[in-house]
Amino acid sequence: MRRSRSAGAWLRRHVSDPYVRQARAGGWRSRAAFKLIEIDRRDALLRPGAFVVDLGAAPGSWSQVAVSRAGAGRVIGIDLLPIAPLAGAVFVLGDVRSAGDSAAIEALLPDGGADLVLSDMAPNLSGVAAADQARSAELVEVAAEFSARALKRGGDLLVKVFQGSEFVRLRALLTSAFERVLVRKPGASRGESAECYLLCRGRR
Ligand SMILES: C[S@@+](CC[C@H](N)C(=O)[O-])C[C@H]1O[C@@H](n2cnc3c(N)ncnc32)[C@H](O)[C@@H]1O
Q1: Does 53 reside within a domain?
Q2: Number of helices and strands (H, E) in the chain?
Q3: Which of 40, 129, 134, 143 has the fewest Cβ atoms nearer than 10 Å?
Q4: Is residue 82 part of a domain?
């Protein structure tokens, strides 16, 4: 089968991407690790002993970073896709939008809830801008609703958001639930991508 022009461009960019090479050399499961590492360096997000939930965790590089900072037995991840086992983390195969799967995560948390919720969730893109924006926005809302139930008071949420027509509404939604909401665009997040992260500190 012939590879499409865009798939060829993706492959060329992938093999020449310094973050991909660094990820391989450092044993990270994906280049996404560097996004969390950079945000954590700047904002001191991950603390030893913190309980961390990783929404949309596959293939597991954010969970790797979280285990390395928070310690073993304190990281719980969930994804629609299976994730290879990782020492120090527990993974649930499921959909954060499902009440049952979300409750399975909450049941693993200590009384009072998690210290930090991470959400790098992204939908499979259809190429239809309006539909993709709506599905991305839904995942931000789901992460916010999950945090309202499972994050302890004063806890933090880091959530991926795509800049587009929904951005202002989503930031306002999060600002009503947290003391401070900061925009972060780490170096490993490709410049041409509309992706950025909202760092929401201090759940009210
Ligand atoms: C960009 S990847 C996450 C990469 C991850 N942070 C890492 O460092 O390895 C986004 C993930 O979100 C997951 N996802 C999307 N919608 C989801 C949902 N409703 N429930 C659980 N996972 C979801 C996808 O399956 C995908 O694996």
Answers
A1: yes
A2: 7, 7
A3: 129
A4: yes
- Ligand 1 touching residue 81 (CB < 6 A): yes
89 close to 60: Cβ distance less than 8 angstroms: yes
Residue 122 Cβ inside 6 Å of ligand 1? The answer reads yes
Q: Is residue 106 a part of any domain in this protein?
A: yes
The residue among 164, 160, 203, 167 whose CA lies nearest residue 185 is: 160
Active site residue 152: no
Do the domain assignments include residue 19?
A: no
Distance 122 CA to ligand 1 centre (A): 6
Instruction: Give the residue numbers spanning the domain of 135.
Output: 29-203
Q: Using one digit for the tens of pLDDT, what is the confidence trace for 150-167?
A: 999 999 999 999 988 899
Long-range pairs for 9-18 at CB < 8 Å and ≥24 separation?
none
Residues 6+ apart with CB under 8 A from 1: none
**Using a 6 Å cutoff on CB, does residue 119 contact ligand 1?**
no
For atom 13 of ligand 1, the residue with the nearest CA is: 56
The count of structural domains within the chain is 1
- Which atom of ligand 1 is nearest to 60's Cα? 9
Give the 3-state secondary structure percentages of the chain, helix then strand then coil, rounded to 5. Answer: 40, 25, 35
Looking up residue 154, the CATH number of its domain turns out to be: 3.40.50.150
Please write the tens of the pLDDT for every residue from 84-102.
Answer: 999 999 999 999 999 999 9
